[in-house]
Sequence to fold (107 residues):
Amino acid sequence: MDAGFERVALVDELDEGVPFSIDLSTDEQICLVRFNGEVYAISNTCSHADFPLSDGEMVEDYIIECGLHGAQFDVRDGRAVELPATEPVACYDVKIEGGEVWVRSNV
Ligand code: FES
Fold:
């Protein structure tokens, strides 16, 4: 596996459309979402007021809603698509190999 990636989960552990929290060894807190045959990784910290996005839910295709004030983000690129958030959340590279999910640190 390329440098910077670490194994964080098995694909089979992730329920479709259910956010899942993991921490990288670098202390980066990640929200994983399995959706439509892919796995996406964004920062688990809402850009509005630091609430964990893994405590929110998917409300439409590729869109996760923060459970605190309802901001929405696209899990494919981390961009904010609904107020009150205006800033994106970090997006992480994901690879799936042999049923394992690998995420690359942004540090
Ligand atoms: S903390 Fe997420 S919308 Fe406010």
